[in-house]
Amino acid sequence: MNQKFIDELCGIVGKLNIRLQEPMANHTTFRIGGPAQIFVIPETTEEIRQIVRLCKEREVPYFVLGRGSNLLVSDAGMEGVVLQIYDNYSDFSIDGNQVKAQAGVMLSKIGYAVKEKGLNGFEFAAGIPGTLGGAVMMNAGAYGGEMKDIITSVQLMDEDGNLLEKSCDEMEFSYRHSILTEQKLLVLGATITLTQGDKKVIEERMQELATARRKKQPLEFPSAGSTFKRPEGYFAGKLIMDAGLCGYQVGGAQVSEKHCGFVINRGNATAADVLQLVTDVKKKVYEKFQVELEPEIRLVGRQEN
Known about the structure:
7 helices
């Protein structure tokens, strides 16, 4: 990478907030991924704007990363700039029944805060192990709730650094989808509207969902959450189990024996292991049930030949 470009980035965020050849395995919940060419940690909206504009001017690709909870990064790593929006950009405030939050805040942090205020409607999201930005991008959901149910508006930035705000309807949310899937827009934050409820009831519901997660999901192993989207009329985990693939393993990657909808990293799994396992699972399930499984996790990074 051109040293001049790196120096320009240093001028925006400072040397301490730039890392070269940073292992992406350190920044994904799968604990998998090769090095990011340049890893940048901005702290303000203006820094994000300047980085985005600089990347466009210099024709350098950039990728926005939150906690990395829904990603499979290739073993060859990532070219260009990885722009992390996580703890460094995670302020939020509560006013009445409205939450205004930056994209990097963890959903669990919002969940705890709104519970303390007796605000209802966020319980489904409180245990999702990701950031608000990632949850908005994919319309994350669990236990019958989705982000589209509680979002009023989303604050965005385009690749020219312009600030935009879109309503929930304009985001075109559907199952694990939003306009962000197709458009080069970066989530800066969102406004969430909840309803007043009973703190004790909210707390009990959150504990109930947390217990269900611990019981049913392989939280003791690194993973990227549910590996496959739910096929219409079916459950991916049951199809995989019924296909005889419970515990199926490729290298360090394994179909979880606790929940077949999860692929876990049993130790030193590579992206290649996961991709081969996913290919095998899709093939076997289709052969047995004529149902096409579609991955929910996002594959990013350099693709090896």
